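Researcher: Structure prediction, please.
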Amino acid sequence: MNPADIRHAASAGTMGCMAFTGIPKGAVDFYRQLEDNNSRDWFQAHKQDYLDQVRTPFEALAEDVGAAFGEAKVYRPNRDVRFSSDKSPYKTHQGLYVRSNSHAGWYFNLDSSGFFLGGGSYWFAPDQLVRYRTAVANDHSGAELKSILAELTAAGYEVGGEQVATRPRGVPSDAPRLDLLRRKALTVRLVLGEPAWMATPDAAEYLHDGWDEVRPLVSWLHQFVGDSEQRRS
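Model: Predicted structure follows.
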């Protein structure tokens, strides 16, 4: 995205009366160091860096985007290690998420490689997967999704999501949009790296614009896949 394409005026988002002023350059370095020092002792010794460079800016940004996209959630830094062989206590990334319906929404992420934004659904519950594949197979809704993704990829987004190795059971090898029928989840993301504007209030405008670009995909998922009370299979 080019600064000339920014369409939204900066909003004075607040969290505890603090306006969003950008995410400091040291935020990426914090995660580079955390990857090499993922321990409680190290994190506690650098907790103020985490609060100043990561947590507080993300909370202010969440408040900023919330008015346009819905309530934003800033993920906590601690990992749930109860059922994992990896006992590292802290996540090596910081995420911000707005959910439009079950398992679909917008994402913003920071880790040691920089930033990315995107949206979609990281997984479908069994009933959602049936509805997703039905909509993809339909000539009208399937073509609409194909067009949405074509516009996003032309703008630099990467299409992702778990997929089966060949094709779903019962789907012929020459089925239209087989690449999409193979998906068990559907996401897009735009890799941002470490742009200088991230440390300025303009970062909120860039995120607004990026999420607006992703809005047609989130809306398609909301319309054709919908919510679910089922658990992941």
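Model: Residues 3-224 form a domain with the BirA Bifunctional Protein; domain 2 fold (CATH 3.30.930).
Researcher: Thanks, that helps.
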